[in-house]
Protein 1
Amino acid sequence: MSATTVMLVDDHEIVRAGFRRLLDNAADLQVIGEAATGEDGYQLYLESKPDVVVMDLSMPPGVGGLEAINRILASDPQARILVLTVQECEPYPSRVLQAGAKGYLTKRCAPEELIAAVRQVAQGREFIAPGIRKELDGKGASKLEALTKRELQVFTLLASGQSVAQIADAMFISQKTVHAHRANILGKLGLKKTSDLIHLAIRHGIIEA
């Protein structure tokens, strides 16, 4: 039986190296490609058509994980994508699963859990970490659910330290539009400034302190 082919998309080279070593040590799994951005991940998917894509969500600047998922599934509705991220809180899990990803794991997962998830997703079955399932079952608790898809993207980029100019370039929108999104985000979340937004992102595990 041929090995299940896997593609890794994560902007941290050391993280990719660790995951590659782990997956390649499983006799039935083979990592055939790596990408550091959502855009590169999308292009590499079109070229290599792996059985499973292991995708991070936070890859600023440029195309983020959620947008890359949407692009891949638009080109191949049968694509099997497993999200592996630090982002544990809503609305990220539900947005990702609504987009069509098959699985959701956090980077705190045990090595054997990642291997099991890749195998299950390769078979076309869903794999959601227990902690994420709990978060989905308690849906509605996070203020972030009030944000639109575009606002959530801007929120994530702001929280990761991107400037308004960088976000405008990455998203192909004007700086004025970014400022408008930022104002809407702060209003919806009941915050006053970007530093408050960063603290909220840290509390929710969206970014690491």
Note: The beta strands are 4-9, 29-35, 52-55, 81-85, 103-106, 127-128.
Protein 2
Amino acid sequence: MWWFAKHKKVDIIAAGWLEGMTDIHCHLVPAVDDGSRSLDETRQLIEAMRSVGIQRIITTPHIYRRYPHNDSDTLRQAIERLLPELSDLEMPLTLGAEHMLDEGFETHLAKPLLTLGDSKYLLVETSFVGAPLDLYRLIQSVISAGAIPMLAHPERYLYMDDKEYSRLQGAGCAFQLNLFSLTGMYGERVEKRAQQLLERGLYSFVGTDTHRIERFRKTIASAKTYARYEEPIRTLMSNNQTLMPPHEQCTSRASM
């Protein structure tokens, strides 16, 4: 009986795990990165995200050299153009950004920072191949700029080991889980790494990292993970809500 309870899997969509979620990592600004390709796709994504229980969204377009026109100024202009087109959907949508820690990163620290919601957290990532040689200096530059680095999807950096994760947290990084890493979206190795980090209590926040409507629909059609992770995931979702201004925080089962 103990073994069965530990290894029982559930469909997290059917079980309502996303009910009331504030998603803090997704790519919904159309045609600025590898996320939504059009206004129509953004509308479809928002409707699909609402259908699984998501109630608030911080959208986080990429800022790095692959998209040279993206910075805090141009992305704010883009979201200002976008919001009136989405007003009928009545989905609270706030702009953040996902910053690549590369050689051009520090130039963006001189501009108004696109932190997450009403917080000081700045979402950052590294290459999936390897971290920059000056990773810890870049992390310190975030802190010196008055922000808190939040490392996106650390479970996907398979070049890291336990010692590196601990060192990153010791340097001041918070960790953000990609929820669907736990359901095998990125393969078995990433799934196992996500399980390990979650069981060690290293995550503080959770996002969907939604990009395209086809992938999102496929993912939610079969999103299963171990039932024992429900409580820690609800805790992370509750943490997400603290990033929003008090009058914009939504009520979810995680905070009841």
Note: The domain at 2-255 is CATH 3.20.20.140 (TIM Barrel).
Protein 3
Amino acid sequence: MQKLILLLSISFIGFQAFSQRTWFDAEFSTEIVNNLELSVAPELRFKEEFELNEYFLQTALEYQFNKYFSLAAGYRYGYNINGDDEHQSFGRFNLDAKTNVKWNNLQPKFRLRFTNADDFSDENENVNYLRYKFELEYKIKKLDLEPYVLAEWYHDLDLKEISKSRYESGMMYKINKHHKIGVYYRLNHYLNSDKNNRNIVGLSYKFKL
């Protein structure tokens, strides 16, 4: 276990060489009734020079219809911090449809999300989006590692165009049946704008009861 945690630490340090920003997130989830899961997820997001830029708490309910398909709804409430150290609150909701298929140790996933904010810029603009996320996860059972890659596209429903994309690579380590830790590298990419792209490295922790 110590060697695997060291591997994640080395990966985090390596990702830092390419990143501009650092994010820390956690998720606590439990099944409250049969097939209905409640999750609570706090997150801290830091800008360059490790300056706190945003923090929030997200709650969600997800209903699993079968092993291939689920629906979820979530709400996020948090604060942005501007240059004058003022905190500006924001709220965001999302509706999700998720599907996944397991094939041996390989697990392709797709998520369609409707949301009223972009989760992309510092301003958390109130814009309606459809987000299309494709993810491919592989389980290395002997090491309890789950490396993955994903790509996501943001469809601006007001402008009627796909304006942003997100790419991510990372891995999760399963400590036991309740706890996981992970590291990832993420690129937030503007497609039709001269805004600067964002390189992000993150650490994750998940607890499932």
Note: Residues 2-208 form a domain with the Porin fold (CATH 2.40.160.40).
